[in-house]
Write a structure and sequence with these properties.
Elements: E1 8-9, E2 22-26, H1 34-41, E3 48-54, H2 63-73, E4 80-87, H3 91-106, E5 111-114, H4 125-135, E6 140-145, H5 146-151, H6 158-165, E7 169-174, H7 205-214, E8 220-224, H8 236-246
Parallel strand pairs: 2-8, 3-4, 4-5, 5-6, 6-7, 7-8
Antiparallel strand pairs: 1-3
Helix pairs in contact: 2-3
């Protein structure tokens, strides 16, 4: 299969990044009635698809499957297409495929976000910037992925990183995480130390969000729940309240 349908939640996006701040969870352990329950908790239900692009594979990206997924969700509302760039050695092909995906997504009001992932060709937000620039589509940006950046050794570089990428961000991923100490090697850590329910761990997520907001960003936030075996309803209600508190305008006076 040319595109990996790692997740496809039938949840509507609602607004575009310039309108207001929204929050949705993804990769949580599924449960009965999740769509309605997530909405009742206060999250903005958002359809999202994680796909992979490999520029040197025989079939580098499957636009047909992407189109089918968008068609199945567009009656609910616009959503987000994550593109994880596994291999970009054929840059021309990579740019063209992202442009094609973006144009397809734009027809239904969907956005495309380049999704940095540790160990891939584009492991960080900074590495994604040149691709966003070259793709040059209004519905294409990058994900500022807090745990991925921590994994890459960037836990104490966020002010610098945000300054460099702020105009290209269209999704910010947060969660609970441990803070690497001097001399630690988070690249060798289990993901369970960097992808925890919001409110756990000693990394200061509130300060991270404040730095993002100070850059002028308004848009989509998401809590990644990958690998968390705890039932979602045991931590998502608290997660939303934590995010709501972090986004209180009084925190930014």
């Amino acid at each position: 299969m040319l595109i990996s349908l790692l997740v496809a939640a039938s949840i509507p996006l609602g607004v575009h990044a310039e309108d207001k701040d929204t929050f949705f969870p993804y990769f949580y352990k599924p449960f009965k009635g999740e769509e309605q329950t997530i909405k009742e908790l206060g999250f903005t239900p958002t359809p999202h698809l994680l796909s992979k692009l490999n520029s040197v594979a025989e079939n580098p990206y499957n636009l047909k499957i992407l189109g089918q997924w968008i068609n199945s969700k567009k009656q609910i509302g616009p959503g987000v297409v994550f593109i994880k760039l596994d291999n970009v050695s054929d840059e021309e092909k990579t740019i063209k495929l992202i442009q094609d995906a973006a144009d397809l997504a734009a027809k239904s009001g969907f956005i495309v976000t380049l999704y940095p992932y540790f160990g891939t060709a584009v492991p960080s937000a900074e590495a994604a910037v040149p691709f966003v620039q070259k793709v040059n589509r209004p519905n294409v940006g990058l994900t500022l992925h807090m745990p991925q950046e921590i994994k890459g050794g960037n836990a104490r570089r966020f002010p610098e990183i945000i300054s460099k990428v702020k105009q290209y961000i269209n999704l910010v991923v947060i969660c609970g995480s441990d803070l690497p100490k001097e001399g630690d090697q988070p690249a060798k850590w289990s993901w369970s130390r960097m992808m925890r329910p919001l409110g756990e761990g000693d990394f200061d997520v509130a300060t991270f969000v404040k730095e993002v907001k100070a850059s002028g960003y308004h848009g989509h936030y998401a809590e990644i729940c990958w690998g968390i075996e705890t039932p979602a309803m045991d931590y998502l209600p608290r997660a939303f309240q934590i995010w709501k508190t972090m986004m209180n305008p009084e925190n930014f006076l």
